[in-house]
UniProtKB/TrEMBL annotation, chain A:
Location within or outside the cell: Cell membrane
Family: Belongs to the cytochrome c oxidase subunit 3 family.
GO molecular function: cytochrome-c oxidase activity
Any Pfam family matching the protein: COX3
Name of the featured protein: Cytochrome bo(3) ubiquinol oxidase subunit 3
Transmembrane intervals: 41-62, 88-111, 123-142, 162-189, 219-239
GO aspect biological process, one term: aerobic electron transport chain
Main location per the UniProt record: membrane
Domain Heme-copper oxidase subunit III family profile: from-to ranges: 43-240
InterPro entries: Cyt_c/ubiquinol_Oxase_su3, Cyt_c_oxidase-like_su3, Cyt_c_oxidase_su3-like_sf, Cyt_c_oxidase_su3_a-hlx
Subunit record text: Heterooctamer of two A chains, two B chains, two C chains and two D chains.
Key word Magnesium present: no
Native source organism of the sequence: Aminobacter aganoensis
PROSITE patterns for the chain: COX3
From TrEMBL, chain B:
Upper taxonomic lineage: Bacteria, Pseudomonadati, Pseudomonadota, Alphaproteobacteria, Hyphomicrobiales
Pfam annotation, one family: COX4_pro
UniProt keyword annotations, A-Z: Cell membrane, Membrane, Transmembrane, Transmembrane helix
Species this protein is from: Aminobacter aganoensis
Protein name: Cytochrome c oxidase subunit IV
Membrane topology designation: Multi-pass membrane protein
Keyword Endoplasmic reticulum: no
Subcellular location: Cell membrane
Transmembrane segments: 33-55, 62-83, 89-110
GO cellular component, one term: plasma membrane
């Protein structure tokens, strides 16, 4: 019980809403984030720091692209696939986007069923999310293979500015790593849900603390963030 | 209807009533909300793909890309990540700091323009 009290901010006294609430929560010696457990707050703060990492990546890409005097390769043509007897621009990236968005949808529903304590549906939806995530990484591996065989390297490529390769591999590589780590964590949390660890109060193998269904939501925050980053990569790197 | 059924499942599901009480405050929204947002994300993605497919150019292209991007990001953060239901103390702490990146963008735009001009002046156009 002591653990639950530590994990959840007390919600006894009613707090003012809106802007007044924002000032009230942040003033004086107290927990700023009411009704948010430390796990969720820390995940948000981690995601904030990750935002800066990807922000810097996209910034360096912008700087490289704006300052080069050599023409930038046209991503619409570079990422085109020859399907059904014609070149369809950017089709693989579009499919990857839809796959990742779908995985975000299934994850959001998994969180919902988790709070309804529907173990079966939660675990199945999380496994589906992991499968879609793995599909995404697989398609990314295909894309990398295709570009590498076409001669794209971090230092050169057949179509134009050399920085195209370096920014491409760095940005999509880091994003793919995030997706891969997410898939691994999804499988771990899905297994815990399936076994009912959050109901029997089994202790985790790493922290030795009792888990809660909130872990599913925290996992979801990470996964949605991965999707969120892809929204920006898709817009700035592939479409721009 | 599905919701009632799910609640029912929930009643049978919990083993530790004390813990269940702690979670009663958790985020609970109808599944339909997620499906609607999912649908909108699909539509918006299709729109941004269409921008490329129909090869729109110039300001139209860039403004459409940015609009669709911000709408998608907003939907994901607000609904999927439940930020719309969190208190402003958390929302401001997480959403305001990334805006500083825009200052960084402005600085680097100036810097890269300067680099480009230097390159053109020193090496001539095309390296």
């Amino acid at each position: 019980m002591a653990e639950t009290t530590l994990g959840h901010a007390d919600q006894t006294a009613p707090r003012p809403p809106g802007l007044r609430g924002f000032v009230a929560d942040w003033s004086s010696d107290q927990r700023a984030f009411k009704g948010v457990s430390w796990g969720k707050a820390m995940m948000w703060i981690f995601l904030l720091s990750d935002t800066f990492i990807f922000g810097c990546f996209l910034l360096s890409y912008m700087t490289a692209r704006m300052s080069t005097v050599v023409p930038w390769p046209n991503p619409s043509e570079v990422f085109a696939l020859h399907l059904f007897g014609q070149d369809i621009p950017l089709i693989l990236i579009a499919i990857m986007t839809f796959v990742l968005i779908s995985s975000s949808g299934t994850m959001a529903m998994a969180v919902n069923f988790g709070y309804r304590r529907d173990r079966r549906k939660t675990a199945i939806l999380m496994l589906l999310t992991a499968a879609l995530g793995a599909t995404f990484v697989g398609m990314q591996a295909f894309e990398w293979t295709k570009l590498i065989t076409e001669g794209v390297r971090p230092w050169e490529n057949p179509w134009g500015a050399a920085q195209f390769g370096s920014t491409f591999f760095m940005i999509t590589g880091f994003h793919g790593t995030h997706v891969t780590i997410g898939v691994i964590f999804l499988l771990i949390v899905a297994r815990k849900v399936w076994r009912g660890d959050y109901e029997t109060g089994a202790r985790g193998f790493f922290t030795s603390r009792r888990g809660q269904y909130e872990s599913v939501e925290i996992m979801g925050l990470y996964w949605h963030f991965v999707d969120l980053v892809w929204v920006f990569i898709f817009a700035f790197f592939y479409l721009w | 209807m599905a919701q009632v059924e799910a609640r029912d499942h929930g009643l049978h599901g919990h083993a530790a009533p004390a813990q269940a009480g702690a979670h009663a405050q958790g985020q609970q929204h109808p599944i339909k909300l997620y499906l609607v947002v999912w649908g909108w994300l699909f539509i918006l993605s299709a729109c941004s793909y269409a921008v490329d497919y129909f090869a729109l150019q110039g300001m139209l292209r860039w403004s459409l890309i940015l609009i669709f991007m911000m709408l998608k990001a907003g939907l994901i953060v607000a609904v999927f990540m439940h930020m719309a239901w969190e208190r402003l103390a958390l929302a401001y702490a997480i959403i305001v700091p990334p805006l500083v990146i825009l200052v960084f963008v402005a600085i680097m735009v100036v810097e890269s323009r300067y680099t480009e001009i230097t390159r053109v002046l020193s090496f001539g156009a095309g390296q």
